[in-house]
Amino acid sequence: NIFNVKPSIINRSNCDALDIVISRTDLIKFLNSKIGLKIGNKVKQHADIPAWVKKNKKFQIACLRGLIDTDGSVYDHVYKSKGRMYSYKKLQFTNMSKPLVDSVYFILKNMGFSPGIHKEKDVRLENRKDIERYFKIIGTHNKKHLDRYVR
User: Fold this and answer.
1) pLDDT by residue (tens digit) across 1-12?
2) Is the whole-model pTM more than 0.85?
């Protein structure tokens, strides 16, 4: 009902279960015509976060979480200064679509974070407090990110 497409329901004979299948073609047509997601190469089309997501803080949070869970990384920045080793966490989102990179940057900025853009394709949070706030406010569904954050 959400996507206005009719699923196929297939009874499994080998167990007490059903398969509910939605045609990808129908789903893509819906997402394109009703929600405005473009079909094809996202970089060449300069993909961006849809305006309706940008207007709603709850949607912004979910969108950031999804983008960073899929195209982001959490890592330790390790360096040596005056003979002493230092290490701190960084969070980075990488994408070749400039509008998408800019939107991630501005949403983070408007939420009170201090992001930076590097090499026109990376949005980074480098401040320890920003990283803590990110995981508190935005969170993650990516176990690898969570594991790297807590260790």
Assistant:
1) 777 778 888 888
2) no
Mean pLDDT, residues 14-21 taken together: 85
CA distance 80 to 61: 35
Q: What is the DSSP letter of 39?
A: P
Overall average pLDDT of the 99-124 stretch: 97
In whole angstroms, give the CA distance from residue 114 to residue 125: 7
Which pair of tokens denotes residue 94? Answer: 């990488």
3-state secondary structure of 78: strand
- Among residues 78, 91, 87, 76, the alpha carbon closest in space to that of 140 is found at 91
Q: What CA–CA distance (Å, rounded) separates 122 from 118?
A: 5
